[in-house]
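batch job 7 of whatever, protein = Elongation factor Ts
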Amino acid sequence: MAAITAGMVKELREMTGAGMMDCKKALAETDGNMDKAVEFLREKGLAAASKKAGRIAAEGIVATIVSEDGKSAAIVEVNSETDFVAKNAQFQTYVADVAAQALASESKDMEAFLAETWAKDTSLTVEQMLSSQIAVIGENMNIRRFEKITTDGVVVDYIHGGGRIGVLIEASAEVVNDTVKEALKNIAMQIAALTPKYVRRDEISQEFIDHETEILKVQAKNENPDKPDSIIDKMIVGRLNKELKEFCLVDQAYVKDGDLTVAKYLEQVSKEVGGKVDVKKFVRFETGEGLEKKEDNFAEEVARQMQ
């Protein structure tokens, strides 16, 4: 059986919001498997599905860029070792240049992107420029991911927390004006805050629904051991619908007016501008999501530097 460390318990607590002893028990029951421990806690009703996002730990920033005509945009995440470097003006300028490179790029994956000629110095590749920046800034850095959207509609971007979260939102719009762009910016802020996984329900796979249904069924049985399966099945229909509303952008309550869903808000905007506005896609990057941060003892670090 795998040894359960305090670090593992702490990590599971951060991922789920469950209590320390519950996390310790979940890890013991699942032989230290983090994903299975999350599911164990959910089945016991001790963890929310939305907490399964992963470990938000590494430093760096997310940057976005939109073309002048609003028809294309790019989003990038570049990581650094420390928050100090992430706030450095030279690092931020470099990340903005990486975003501009991504906007002009035709590359489909990171390997091809790193092999491209660096637009601001054609004697270097993107990867060589990254190495050069590492040498100048004096800290390890990584271009972790990028995504580009090209559309015949409109793209709007939003950056939250100085680059901690970035969002691109693509919409089809019969009318494109400041009212439409402001509405899409509002929805991009909602995406940053509430982390939907899909635009609408028809994007959700049956496999995902079956998996969530099974977890909710076990959870309901644990809470109501005396109720028959027929009642349990009816209970989980409501719970599943509630969960899917949180996962789907257009079904979420609109944060600026809780009486509206995002879908109803879009209907209002469409009526106001005299043409249909419809969200087609969004991309949300959060700095460091899923990465594990190296934790050093500050006193030991200072002692090492003095030696």
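notes: The first strand starts at residue 59 and ends at 66.
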